[in-house]
């Protein structure tokens, strides 16, 4: 009896120790998760902090009198005349109305430099589209210069250097007060391609480029990957060759992505003579890179189909083909799709191989096909981030946010698909 | 030497009880089995399956050792034996389910209605349509009840019209004793049913392609006693129109459902006889030791 | 109780099952021994004109009945719990049947004791006691041998008992003829001679029951039912 009691006591004492240990263990876990969450949060906060202004543009709205004499332009449809015309003059004149005292040549220049480089071409484009507007007064929204934009958005931020003169700053302050200079949602970001001018640069070109590239990647890697996985899992004989292929696929998944870029450069561009910096080549290279991931995850998905289902199908007389087509592939589909989407998300974020095949070029136009020059989101971000102009820094952050949104929605799609298609047995 | 001596002395002492002496002298596990020699009645007058000198190899290992057996028409024959005795392997030879195992080779002559099962020209799909199979774990497809039963007829093209297929499904479910429970939820997924219902669905699925033979590999080992009783009842009903081969670990089950019982031991077919005979007075010492719970 | 290791019922994986079968067997033998002594004492009571002993025999029969009930219950429990097969099943089934044989033998002993009391009250021993002694010894031997055959699972000895039964029948017939003659000689003896006839009849029944036990032993050992078959048939079965 006493023996039992003392034993119970020992157990009770050890229990305390055990509980302490468990609590400590749980604490470590919590700590690890909070560190991870904190760094993630910091990263997001930093990106959003830097990038949210990228979604805001600064505009100068002016009543411009499109005086033909001032512009040396009689007929806006005439190409020769247009090339000689001075579209800047009416804009500066309109600005001068706000500051009658500034009429020296240097003041005019200083006023003019408040506007973005593309202000003149905005006026020109307007006139080309509507020649009737000549000699009328129009209210036109014009992009402000990057320096003005930085001053308006970040006057108090020591990280940004204000490159406006004292006088220009006074002018801008006054114009802001009058409501001439205003900030609004940056629709340019989603409607334009790249540009030398931050105020005029957008990610649409890169998004389209990315989508085209991904489409090529998907069309090639998904069927090929699944076919390869099905063959290896279901039909391939168990021998040295199969083992060899298996080992190599696993190794391929670990090959640095830049090697695939080199391969693409050598094979697609060098050997097959495909054009540089086009989505087809980019897609092909990324497809090669994604294939191992898709094959490995698809094989895992096929392996997870219970053998009892195969046996059941074989038992009622289904042929090997029917077993695979009717049962194995449908049941493995959620896993295959998840693997593919995650592989695609990886490819979407890939820069290195694309740099090598020339998708890093400065491309203003929005790509209109698989064979037109294009760039992709991560490369665009890379380009902007390495640019010296202050306006591009916030654009790069904005681009990262766009890219992250894409990736998260792809991952969400993967999760949704898995939940949706998953069956229990 | 010692054991030999004691053996002789025991015999000398108990000359009029050789049986008692012999059993007490050595363990049943040590009994040497003469290869290919089966006690009892392995042959039948009207065989559905005629199996002669069957051997199965896994790589070099011989899993089935020279077995000859007839399986009669509309007979329920039970295969019993300790784990790893080869009864499942042997069962799977009957509809070539072993084909998918690369290292597995089958030797000997196996004939279904006098046609060689392992004829390379023979289509295994046709064979499996004639020899259906029910597995240990209920394994319905993760589809609707209807689709489960209709799958076989569909892939074999047994029904031309939807109404024909409906008839097949209904008939199969009726025969499997599942119609009353399932008729109102044919579109529900099969995996939502109870284990016993799932197993009867698997039987219905096997019946749907109207096979002549049904192989059952421990069909009740995952079921509760009530579900087991249902399946056993079903086997009794089906025995009128099908030849049934059942592998079971439950000797009581073999005793209840089968006409003949075959006892397998380490790849040998030790004894085949009428079930009544096997369970009251088996002829082979090993059979006796196994069914009375002395080893296994 | 027989040694576990040497007994064919002692090598199951379940030790509890071993113990149950072993207990069934040893209790059956115990009952057999009791019944044997009942018959022996009943005959002694008769021959020695010992009414006291006869009373004892009648009292002890209650114990025999009690043992029958206990053995039946044990056998039923084994059937329910273990679902025995083959040799084990045959043992249990045979014990159930042999127990009722033993109980009947017990009843016959009681009957003999009853007549022994009656005869001792009526005084003077009639003729026929020699025959009673002779047949009594014969069937007692048979009963003993049958129990021995059961204990050792000896089918050949059981076969010998089956053959023996014929001789008991012959002896019984001879004895009854003798008594019949005696009764015809002197009608006053009829009542007492009838008692002796009944006793002889009881002893003959004991022989039959011993024979039944022997048949069951053959069933246990060989798995063939040799009841209601000619002895030659049984001989073939045992010879296998």
TrEMBL record, chain A:
Segments passing through the bilayer: 25-45, 203-232, 252-274, 280-302, 395-417
Membrane topology: Multi-pass membrane protein
Keywords carried by this UniProt record: Cell membrane, Membrane, Transmembrane, Transmembrane helix, Transport
Domain named ABC transmembrane type-1: residues: 207-414
Main location: membrane
Subcellular location: Cell inner membrane; Cell membrane
Protein name, as recorded: Phosphate transport system permease protein PstA
Organism: Marinobacter confluentis
From TrEMBL, chain B:
Pfam families named in the record: ABC_tran (PF00005)
Entry's Gene Ontology cellular component terms: membrane
Basic and acidic residues bias spans: 16-39
Signal peptide: none
A GO molecular function held by the record: ATP binding
Name assigned to this protein: Phosphate ABC transporter ATP-binding protein
Domain ABC transporter: 49-291
Automatic annotation (TrEMBL), chain C:
UniProt-annotated location(s): Cytoplasm
Keyword Cytoplasm set for record: yes
GO BP terms in the entry: intracellular phosphate ion homeostasis; negative regulation of phosphate metabolic process; phosphate ion transport
Species the sequence originates in: Marinobacter confluentis
Protein name: Phosphate-specific transport system accessory protein PhoU
InterPro entries with a match to the protein in the record: PhoU, PhoU-like_sf, PhoU_dom
Role: Plays a role in the regulation of phosphate uptake.
Alphabetical keyword list: Cytoplasm, Phosphate transport, Transport
Subunit details: Homodimer.
Keyword Transmembrane helix attributed: no
Gene3D superfamilies: Phosphate transport system protein phou homolog 2, domain 2
Gene Ontology CC annotations of this record: cytoplasm
Domain PhoU: 29-115, 132-217
Sequence similarity: Belongs to the PhoU family.
Main location, first listed in the record: cytoplasm
